[in-house]
Structure formats: structure tokens, C-alpha cells
Amino acid sequence: TGIDIPVHVDGASGAMIAPFVDPELLWDFRLPRVASINTSGHKYGRVYPGVGWIIWRDAAALPEELVFHVNYLGGDMPTFALNFSRPGAQVAVQYYNFLRLGRDGYRAVQQGCRNVAMYGAEQVAATGRFDLLTDGSELPVFAFTTKPDSKFDVFDLSAHLRERGWQVPAYTFPANRTDLAACRVVVRQGSRDAADLFLDDLGRAVAALDRTGGGMGEHRSSFHH
What is the pLDDT of residues 141-150, one digit of tens each? Predict the structure, then answer.
């Protein structure tokens, strides 16, 4: 057709997972149309919020309108970073983690996250009280919803888990599936012991809701820090 449409990959979470645990997955610059990729260091880069970055295939892929030319340091200096004063601690921590962990270290961390997520999803499904929507076998994230005949919904469950210190968001799906609501568990670096603590509290929450019923969760006030 003669039309060349470059692709930007929003790899906020996945771009720090796939290279280490799914190296055979083609999603990056190995695909000729991919021109740029971004990711967030504060998601799976093991840095506190907020740091993220974007890389371009080459200089030709960087739109000129994104480049600022400043000369207040004594000469022309092109830059496409965010201007004005901002903290650099997150950048330093990210650089430290890259040097300290390397590819092998990140592979171990991300595989550990995936293993814990898959274990948690398996145990949640084994209760027989929930339907899994994702099982943690890709991103270290799993989502589930209550069975159709449940006395409570995911909003009630989320509220009870918050009382035990677990912030597990419950939310409805977008338009055309607003009838479906789910809880989402995001697994960062941790252990199976932490997963077992969560599962224990999940069991307590289910038992309490079986006794009292639901109907409160979606209408409660937002949590307070």
C-alpha cells in the first residue's frame, strides 16, 4: 500500500516481564514496525514511584516536535526529557538495580513473581467460591470474581480484605460488560509465605461474609491512607 505506520508499544508492566521470562515472545524491536517502547520502573523495575522511560529504535523514529533545544548551559543542547526541576533519586535507584541484578537477577525476580501469582490464583480457584478471569501465567497478576450464587460480591470482599491490610481493588469492567466486576491481585517481589497470609485472610473474609451477607462494599467510602 505504500503506507508505513510505526507502532508504539505501551509496555508499562509487560516490558519489564517479557524480556526476562518470555524471551521468545516477539513484541519488541525484533518486529520491524515497532518504533518505540515505554515502560514503568515503579511497576516491575523494582523502583518506588515514579519513574518511567521510553526508548526509540533510532534517532529517525524520534519525532522532532518532542525535542526541545535549550542553550542556558552555554551551548545548544537538544533534550526530550521532562523539563524543569525534578528528583533524580528514582533514576539512580533504577540504575543501581540494573547494575546489581543484571539480566539473571531480574529473571529470578520476575519468575518468582509469576510463580507466586500462579500459586495464588490456583489456591483462590481451589476454594470453589470464585471464578478466575486470569491465572497469573503471563503478567504476575490474577483476577477473579464471585460465583453467580454468592451472597456477597467483590466489593464486599475488597472491603473486608482492606480491614486486614490488603488493598485488593474491586472494579467493574468497561462499557458492554459493566455487569462483570472483579478483584485484581498484583504480585510484586514477595514470597509464597506472603501469599499464604493473603489466602488465610481471604478465607476469613469469605467466612465472615457468609455469616453476615454483603451489599455494603460498593457503597462504602474510599479508603484513607
Answer: 999 999 999 9
Q: Where is 122: in which H helix or E strand?
A: helix 89-126
Bridge-based pairing state of the strands 77-79 and 130-135 = unpaired
Cα within 13 Å of Cα(48), Cβ side: 3
Percent of all residues in the chain with a pLDDT value above 90, rounded to a whole number: 72
Q: Provide the CATH number for the domain around residue 209.
A: 3.90.1150.160
Cis? peptide before 88, omega within 30° of 0 = no
Domain that holds residue 52: 7-65+86-105
- Count of domains forming the chain: 2
Mapped onto helix, strand or coil, the DSSP state of residue 67 is coil
**Judgement on whether residues 93 and 177 belong to the same structural domain of the protein:** no
100 and 148: one domain? no
pLDDT in tens, 17-43: 999 999 999 999 999 999 999 999 999
The model's pTM: 0.85
Q: Do 94 and 137 belong together in one domain?
A: no
**SS3 at position 145:** strand
Residue 202 pLDDT > 60: yes
Task: Give the β-pairing of 141-146 and 130-135.
Answer: antiparallel
Distance between CA atoms of 121 and 116, rounded to whole angstroms? 9
57 and 151 together in one domain? no
